[in-house]
Design brief:
This protein has 4 helices and 7 strands. The protein is an alpha+beta fold.
Length: 130
C-alpha cells in the first residue's frame, strides 16, 4: 500500500511539472508567446480591429491569392512578429502592413493575459479591377 501511495505522489508531481523552458520563463516572471498557440477561429473572436490591406490594381497580373501570416498576440492585444507563411510575393507588403495594425482582446490563461501565436489569412481578389 505504501509503494502504491508513493507511486501516485510521484506521478502527480511529474504530470504537474512545466517544461524546462516554461519553468525558466515563469520563474523569471515572463512568458514567451511561442508557448501557447490558439486556432485562427479563436483569434478571430478576439479581434477588435481589422484593417483591410491597401492594394493597387496594378497588381492584377495575379488577381487572386491568399496570404497566410503567422503572428504573436501580446498581453495588450498587439500583433507581435508577423511572418509570412505562404502567398503571392506581390501581396506581402500590404498584408504585413495591414496585420501589424490589427488589435486583439488579450487572450487569458488562468485569469491572466498571456502571449499567444496564431495564423491569419488575408484573401485578395482583384479580378474586378478595371
Amino acid at each position: 500500500m505504501l509503494r502504491f501511495l508513493w507511486l501516485a505522489i510521484v506521478l502527480t508531481a511529474v504530470s504537474s511539472r512545466l517544461s524546462p523552458q516554461a519553468a525558466s520563463n515563469s520563474s523569471a516572471g515572463r512568458s514567451s508567446y511561442e508557448e501557447i498557440q490558439i486556432s485562427p477561429q479563436v483569434a478571430e473572436k478576439l479581434l477588435i480591429r481589422k484593417v483591410a490591406p491597401v492594394v493597387t490594381c496594378l497588381l492584377a497580373a495575379q488577381p487572386v491569392g491568399t496570404m497566410v501570416i503567422h503572428i504573436g498576440i501580446g498581453t495588450h492585444g498587439e500583433v507581435l512578429q508577423p511572418k509570412i507563411i505562404s502567398g503571392p510575393k506581390m501581396f506581402e507588403p500590404s498584408a504585413l502592413k495591414a496585420v501589424r495594425q490589427y488589435k486583439y482582446k488579450p487572450y487569458e490563461f488562468n485569469g491572466k493575459p498571456v502571449e499567444v501565436t496564431t495564423s491569419v489569412s488575408i484573401h485578395y481578389d482583384l479580378s474586378n479591377c478595371p
